[in-house]
Amino acid sequence: MPFFINRIVMKIIRYAFLAVAMLVAGSAWAQTAAQINLLKKQAMKGNIQSCAKLAAYYRANWMLDDAETYYTKQIILLNKKKQSNEAMAVARLREQVRKLRDNLPNTSKVQFIDSVVVDKEAFLSEIKMDKENGTIDSYQHFFNVADSTGAMIFLNGFGTKLTYSYRNEAGHLQLFTCDKAGDGWTESHICRGLQEDCDINYPFVNSEGTKMYYSSNSREGIGGYDIYMTRENGDGTGFVEPANLGYPFNSEFNEYLYVEDDVNQLGWLVSDRYQPEGKVCIYIFIPEGLRTSYDYNDPDERKQCQKVAMLHSLKDTWTDKDAVDEALERLVFVRNQSEAAKNVVPKKEFTFVVDDDHVYYYLSDFKSPSAYTSVNNWLARKKHFEDMSAKLEQQRLVYASSSVAERQRMANSLYQLEEQVFELEDLVKQVEKNLRKEELSALGLLR
After folding, report:
1. In this structure, are 25 and 76 located in the same domain?
2. How many domains does the chain have?
3. 85-109 pLDDT, tens per residue?
4. Which domain range does residue 415 map to?
5. pTM
6. Secondary structure (DSSP) of 92-111
7. CA-CA distance, 175 to 165, in Å (whole number)?
């Protein structure tokens, strides 16, 4: 057989893409009963194209047992024609259907209350999570360095623990952690126990620090990128085996981010399911403390399970309308808070003069790669100087109103305090000078 893909393979692939396109469109393939019966008769006579159409139709409608049946018929017919490459292509499609079906019994009972479609590149700005839950940011923005990998970071609500994604020696994005130590961070260490032969990104740790969620394109996933959950093991050497969250959180598309806002009792899921290129849908849901699944052996629950897994309609997930209404009220409150915050002029963090044309008021103004550490070092020493200066001024006032004997007793300690303040002032000026030099260099203005 020639190396290029022949016309039959092209048709097989076309029908596979058609099935996915129908999912993206969010509607079933419109086929009348007469058309389906005709395709079945043609399939019975060994028509490969009819088998492919029926498999695509049943897959799009999540009639996965039927889809598997017609993929299998295709494989048998193709093998009879000694078209093994084509049969292998269909076998991969059948394996995808089996994976979709086998994960159905693990579908979680969860109520989705709202959704919004946004540009993929800007979805973080639409996650209205309370800052007490932590901060999600790009590696590039947080560390103020160039990065083209799309790596992300998560900083806990206390600002004391950082989890971030970074490429390892094998070229895969993996998760690393470090802790706040003074003005900097401790040495980073890899999160052991997670998948290693794939990319892992978008970490999120719940407010209690007991669960970590992330997105990974691991081979055992349902789709492209899936959401996984894990927790640290008992001896502190790594993490327990990650668990795939299953439907409806995951799909055969890509799920990028899972967040739980404990303050407002809202959850956020970012996915590109059913979306065109460059767009994602942010689904808002009610987090459940104890996750439960549908009884797949119950016919009614099994039918409901399939609807929830597809997530074509948010109303299909509603089991408690009162809880949904209350959650929607919380969502409106959160969004209103976010809009109000946009109109508040942020308070200046400090004033730092780089040169006549550059005056900075926020850490984010700096362009220097080492700015985070350098600025915090400058602010810490500046505060120490100001505190000691205030103490010196207070001691001088006490000295001025004291008796001669008391002044003689205080003179030496007052002199030492003055010397200490002068040394601190010189040190602050030196730190400012070095910081200014770093920033001018970063701006390309250093002479």
Report:
1. yes
2. 3
3. 999 999 999 999 999 899 999 899 9
4. 352-442
5. 0.70
6. HHHHHHHHHHHTGGG-B---
7. 5
